[in-house]
Write a structure and sequence with these properties.
about 350 residues, alpha/beta, Rossmann fold, seven-stranded parallel beta sheet, three-stranded mixed beta sheet, 14 strands, globular
Amino acid sequence: MKGNSTILVTGGAGYVGSHTVVELLKNNYTVIALDNNVNCYAIQCNKPEALKRVEEITGEQVIYYKADIRDKDMLDKIFKAHKIDTVIHFAALKSVGESVQKPLEYYQNNVGGSSALFEVMSKNGVKKLVFSSSATVYGDPQFLPITEQHPTGQGCTNPYGKSKYFTEEVLKDVCTSDPEWKVILLRYFNPVGAHESGRIGEDPAGIPNNLMPYISQVAVGRREKLTVFGNDYPTPDGTGVRDYIHIMDLAVGHLKALEKIDSPCFKSWKAYNLGTGRGFSVLEMVKAFEEASGKKVAYEISTRREGDIAECYADASLANKELNWTATRDIKAMCRDTWNWQKKNPKGFQSS
């Protein structure tokens, strides 16, 4: 499939999207990136800064459309203008905390928008999809490490997680209704880090909702201190434990999924966990980042945040076996590359 196929990447200017686009271009795919710019930095209607830097890193061009996945007319124009082979679907609102406050916005965008995209794909005969899902579909874990056999949709603790679960269910139903569809659901754990060049990285709009960008913004002086939500969880130091995965390992996972989905023996849908299989607590992450950056990260303990769980980490052996994928970068690399990005770009993409 490499070299002569065109991949539509929704949410292509976002954190996971932009790093995946780098890997796609490096492997000779033609990339069409679609983004409504709600979570990325762009001046007016210009190409988002992240994609400009992707082009700089790779020396390749990214075809870009400013568009919303809920806009079926615009999607239809894009599909008719290009011979798209496969879609990688990242576009989604992604804050756990915000989803609790704005559930309707999350369902309309993440579930409604995804359904609109799948409808237009089907209409245009494009029936191969890699979906950016999440470990949140497993809810509060019934066992650890989490395998793909773990029940989904039971005890999802927030609308964000439910929106990913509902979208997975929509895709399963689509595959049942039409055997031509081929879908891989990639259930991520916690992406962190940045491209080793330091040119692209995580640049959340407003106050970060995820741990690592918050830590790095404290270290670089943008924020006074980190708030640690809860130190009374049943974990070794009382703070939440998560499976962190380097963004470039995650990006490679999407290329492995493309190869799998294009194999003649692949049918219908399959889910794969992408994680390291090792959990780190909030305070362990703070310590690792301090060691990587040489900066002190001030923090305060607060009460638990609604929608959070104590522990979550992956069994990623299925991806290793069937996708020939494994995470290769450790916690030191994650913190080193995050700091390299943040110190070179203290205000994110607006630093340019």
